[in-house]
Design a protein that fits this description.
The complex is a heterodimer of chains A (497) and B (120). In chain A, 75% of the residues lie in helices and 2% in strands. Chain A is mainly α and 497 residues long. In chain A, 62% of the residues are buried. Chain B has 120 residues and is mainly alpha-helical. Chain B is elongated. Classes of the chains: A mainly alpha (497), B mainly alpha (120). At the A-B interface, α5 and α6 of A face α3 and α4 of B.
Chain lengths: 497, 120
């Protein structure tokens, strides 16, 4: 154990990477599934140990290949990214059993092993973005996760999945290239790529060259915003989520955008924060305006959407708006709310998309009108959907309420009173689209097309119930989520100039 | 006059930005998917130039430990861009593979025609 302990940060990446290679060598989907399950169940232990070490001892710095930072690539685990690693690993572990039937049902037999291979590569990329302390390394991991995501989306059964994947490929590549341009500016200015070293060296940049720093900040912000689907750069997201295989949608909705949000927080508060006075730039106000626009526009679109997967995808855009609202507010309560919502939204959206995955498995249609009365046929699944949906609305007693409460506190602290009304009003719009689904599902007689539908087998039902239970659990017990998030927010804001 | 001097001193950056904008314009303006990918390639290539240019020093040698060589070029941008080229190639390959599949499924690679066919 003592030999393994210092190598934990790199194990977080190597385990899924080797899993991907092994899965690619498999011919039969069932073997690839076994590899994926083993990897997914092992990761939370690694991430949990890292998180525990960060909370009790302090940040971990791992020199990859023994080359010391800032020259070598550094894996750095601190209070900001340890919870993100834990979130991604935990979600991957909980949804892993669900894949067995869902993937077997939706993916051609000869493509299943490749599907798991791509998924594990995507997981590697996302964990890599979260763990790395090197700006260019983050780009490489971002592209590893993005390229495998395009493949995952393209494996959807509908031919529109191909189009969605292509459009995401174009927009995602532009986003990643913008990010590289920004990094290029920073490298030319400072001669370093290590994030911690960048923060130190940017603080002593000649004032005459500040314009280049601002341009780098602008390129990086726009590049990452494309990846995290900040309104109005979200247009790739609804189709990608709607036409991807159910299980890929579950994973992407829960983790992919969250990791991009982490990267944005890292740049705003850790890299640029100590160097330039972010408060003096209108960037916070700009993000707040876009976030509020996302909360309203995407919610209204979701109300009129008839495809349930697309509806939830638009709801994701709106919910991402809440998270970026917390980042834009940049005060203790607001940032805490934003960071908590990263976790809470991941849990709620996983519950919702898992329920949709079960509906697709049992009844196939995802058009809302075809789902009349499905609540009576699949009671447990639709109860979980209802809990997740109420979480999106922010009903007290669910996780969604906790994050919105802190966001509202943050808005008051910043003196932006109208924002409180915006949060409440957009939650009411969420109530309309969630209510529309619940009404269709519970208050109608089941249509004959659904006569065969019933709750899915246990391997699918347990993840659904676990996620719905977590939605309620984190609505009451906030010690873990809010506790860690408020420590993180304090650390991040303490680094600001 | 000052503007002209700046322009001539930084003509390499002017070329880079011109390529960058050309690529981005092609991606935005063309509805043919293959042409979009060509534009994306030009856009990415311009970023390679953005990195390589500042790394080169006129009269600089490769970075070898030798008493005669004191002025040498920075090798790191080359290494970074080698990685970026691999990523760019993978993106183009995957994009073209998707276009092949789209052509099989829809019978066209024009985006506006595809939207037309999905409507019915």
């Amino acid at each position: 154990m003592t030999a393994v302990w210092p190598q934990l940060p790199v194990l977080q990446i190597i385990i899924p990477l080797f899993g991907a290679v092994l899965a690619a060598l498999m011919r039969r989907g069932i073997f690839a599934f076994a590899i994926m399950l083993t990897v997914s169940l092992a990761l939370p232990f690694v991430a949990g140990s890292l998180l525990w070490h960060v909370l009790t001892v302090g940040p971990i710095s791992y020199a990859l290949g023994g080359w010391l930072p800032p020259i070598g690539i550094e894996y750095r685990v601190d209070i900001l990214n340890a919870p993100i690693l834990m979130l991604v690993s935990a979600i991957a572990a909980v949804i892993a059993p669900f894949a067995y039937r869902s993937v077997a049902f939706e993916i051609e037999p000869d493509q299943q092993a490749w599907f798991y291979c791509m998924y594990l590569l995507c997981l590697t990329g996302l964990l890599g973005v979260a763990i790395t302390g090197d700006a260019f390394n983050a780009f490489v991991f971002l592209e590893i996760s993005s390229l495998s995501t395009y493949v995952l989306i393209a494996l959807g059964r509908d031919r529109r999945a191909l189009l969605a994947a292509f459009q995401y490929l174009i927009m995602g590549t532009i986003g990643a290239t913008f990010y590289v341009i920004g990094i290029g500016f920073l490298y030319v200015l400072t001669g370093t790529l290590n994030m911690a070293d960048l923060a130190v060296r940017l603080a002593s940049v000649d004032p005459a060259q500040m314009r280049a720093v601002f341009i780098a900040l602008a390129f990086i912000t726009v590049g990452i915003s494309l990846k995290l689907a900040l309104f109005p750069l979200h247009v790739w997201l609804p189709n990608a989520y709607a036409y991807a295989p159910s299980w890929a949608t579950i994973f992407l909705a829960a983790t992919a955008t969250k990791v991009a949000i982490y990267l944005l927080v890292r740049y705003f508060f850790s890299v640029f924060g100590p160097a330039i006075d972010i408060q003096s730039l209108p960037i916070g106000e700009f993000i707040i305006v876009l976030s509020v626009a996302a909360m309203f526009v995407a919610s209204v679109v979701a109300v009129f959407e008839t495809n349930i997967k697309r509806m939830l995808a638009f709801s994701s855009v709106a919910q991402i708006g809440y998270i970026t609202l917390g980042i834009g507010l940049a005060n203790q309560a607001g940032l805490t709310g934003g960071l908590v919502h990263i976790v809470n939204h991941a849990i709620m959206k996983t519950a919702l998309f898992l329920a949709v995955g079960a509906i697709v498995y049992r009844a196939c249609p995802v058009k809302l009108a075809d789902l009349a009365g499905i609540g009576r046929k699949m009671p447990l699944t639709m109860t979980a959907f209802a809990i997740g949906g109420l979480g999106l609305v922010g009903v007290p007693g669910t996780a969604g309420f906790v994050s919105k409460w802190y966001l509202a506190l943050g808005a008051i602290e910043a003196g932006w009173w109208p924002l409180v009304f915006a949060i409440v009003a957009s939650s009411l719009i969420a109530l309309i689209y969630v209510g529309k689904v619940l009404e269709t599902a519970w208050l109608h007689e089941p249509s004959p097309a659904l006569s065969e539908a019933r709750d899915p087998p246990l391997s699918m039902l347990i993840p659904i119930i676990a996620m719905a239970a977590a939605t309620i659990w984190f609505g009451f017990d906030t010690d873990w989520t809010v506790g860690v998030a408020s420590t993180t927010a304090k650390t991040l804001l303490g680094g600001l100039r | 006059m000052d503007a002209l001097t700046t322009f001539i001193e930084h003509y390499n950056y002017v070329v880079t930005v011109f390529l960058m904008m050309t690529g981005l314009y092609i991606v935005a303006a063309r509805s043919n998917m293959v042409k979009k990918l060509i534009g994306l390639g030009i856009f990415q290539t311009s970023v390679y130039l953005l990195y390589i240019e500042p790394g080169k020093i006129l009269g600089g040698t490769p970075p070898t430990l030798h008493p005669d060589h004191t002025l040498y070029s920075n090798p790191l941008p080359h290494v970074l861009i080698l990685t970026a080229i691999v990523v760019g190639m993978a993106t183009t390959a995957l994009g073209l593979a998707l276009v092949v599949r789209i052509n099989e499924a829809y019978g066209t690679v024009e985006e506006d025609e595809i939207f037309e066919r999905d409507r019915d």
